[in-house]
Every structure is written in C-alpha cells, then in structure tokens.
C-alpha cells in the first residue's frame, strides 16, 4: 500500500517546505506529542451528560482551552462550577495516555533551549499528562495558566517564542487542531500539522502529515529544516 504524500494546505508537494529554515520548535501537547484522546473523551463524556451537551458541540471546540469551550456552552452562572468539574474529571483520569509515534524522537532532535511545549491544558493537567505518558518535558512549557487568551489567539505561541528568546517568524509550530494551526499562523510561525485528531481538509498548515514519523529535523548553516520521508 502506498503511503500518502505529505501536502500543504494548497495541495503542493510537502518536500518544497524543506527550503525554509527555523530556529526553534513549539509543540502542542494533546494529539501532537501524546495520545490522550481516550482519557479526554471519557472525561468530557461524563461532563456532557451532567450538563446536557451534545458531542458535536464539544467537537467544535477541539484545540481550544477547556475554559473557553465551557464558557461557550453553559450559562454564565454555571461557568465556575462547570470549569471546576471538568478540571476534576480530567485530572482524575490520566489512564491510557501514551507518546505518539515519532513525537519523542522529533522533540529530542532539537537542543533543549530551542524547544517548547505550548498547550491549551492547565499547568496541573499538562504536568499530569506528560508524566503519565513518560515524556521528558522541555524546560519551557506554556500552559493556559500562562496566557490571557488561548488558541486560536496567537498569544500562547508568542509567549513560547519569547521564553525561548526566538523570533516567532523563526519558529515551527507542530499541531493537530485547526485552532492551534490558526494560532501558529497568526503568530507568524511556520506550521506543521499531524492528522491524529483532524482531517487534512481541516488543517490549513504549511505541511500536513499523518504521523510525525514521516518527518525529521536536520540542522544546516542557516538553522533547522524539515526533511520529509
């Protein structure tokens, strides 16, 4: 069976992106580095039953911080209680969380001071999921607790770049969700999307792959670049 050819949002052949260079990589966490989907679905399934929400309403907010999704779904007087409840459910369920194929290898390719995790999860939840997956976290981890505006706003990635001391235009964002790709683009970053939780058609990235094993990072005279295949 022939493997699908990596493409960008316009359908161009993926390897053309190799002539672009970057100095740092900003990784999303859930769906990009770790597979937390079963735990996430269990937690939100319980929450949705308790608050009378449909699955489609939850899916529309994929990639956004939980608090933003909750605020969009419940009445104002329920927000605080509803956010506490989903936080409680997610922190209690970190079972079945694993590192996604190629994620650890890609993460370890970059020097420690040139890589960050930028997640919509809270600090407590990010710490719990990273530990549950057995992933070694970089020194810079930007969580929802660090920002005023979550994805698709560019603020999370702008903070990640700033903490690494790198121009956002010289950063590669690795994401699985449309909201994350939109945030990366708005921050001026180069974008790589992986189809772990979204379709190719939903991911308006510079390059779209099915697995991170399809790409590697190589160092050159002008910085780092992606090698496809």
Helix/strand structural class: alpha/beta
Which range best describes the helical content: under 10%, 10-25%, 25-40%, 40-55%, 55-70% or over 70%? 25-40%
Tally of separate domains: 2
| Largest pleated sheet | 6 strands, parallel
Number of helices: 8
Shape, per Cα inertia axes: globular
CATH architecture of the largest domain: 3-Layer(aba) Sandwich
Q: N-to-C terminal Cα separation, in Å?
A: 16 Å
Stated plainly, the CATH topology of the largest domain is called Rossmann fold
CATH class of the largest domain: Alpha Beta
Adjacency order of strands in the biggest sheet: 5-4-1-6-7-8
CATH superfamily of the largest domain: HAD superfamily/HAD-like
Mean pLDDT: 90
Which parts are unreliable, with pLDDT below 50 for 5 consecutive residues or more?
8-15
GO molecular function, one term: sugar-phosphatase activity
Organism: Nakamurella panacisegetis
Protein name: Sugar-phosphatase
Pfam families: Hydrolase (PF00702)
């Amino acid at each position: 069976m022939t493997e699908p050819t990596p493409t960008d949002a316009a359908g161009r052949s993926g390897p053309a992106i190799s002539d672009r260079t970057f100095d740092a990589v900003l990784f999303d966490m859930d769906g990009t580095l770790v597979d937390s989907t079963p735990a996430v679905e269990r937690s939100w399934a319980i929450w949705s039953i308790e608050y009378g929400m449909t699955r489609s309403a939850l899916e529309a907010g994929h990639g956004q911080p939980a608090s933003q999704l909750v605020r969009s779904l419940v009445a104002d007087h329920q927000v605080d209680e509803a956010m506490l409840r989903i936080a409680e459910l997610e922190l209690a369920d970190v079972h079945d969380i694993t590192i996604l194929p190629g994620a650890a290898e890609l993460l370890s390719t970059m020097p420690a001071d040139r890589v960050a995790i930028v997640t919509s999860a809270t600090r407590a939840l990010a710490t719990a999921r990273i530990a549950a997956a057995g992933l070694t976290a970089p020194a810079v981890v930007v969580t929802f607790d660090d920002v005023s505006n979550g994805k698709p706003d560019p603020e999370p990635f702008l903070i990640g770049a700033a903490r690494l001391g790198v121009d956002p235009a010289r950063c590669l964002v690795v994401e699985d969700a449309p909201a994350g790709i939109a945030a990366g683009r708005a921050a001026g970053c180069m974008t790589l999307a992986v189809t772990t939780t979204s379709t190719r058609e939903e991911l308006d990235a510079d390059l779209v792959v099915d697995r991170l094993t399809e790409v590697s990072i190589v160092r050159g005279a002008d910085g780092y670049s992606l090698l496809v295949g």
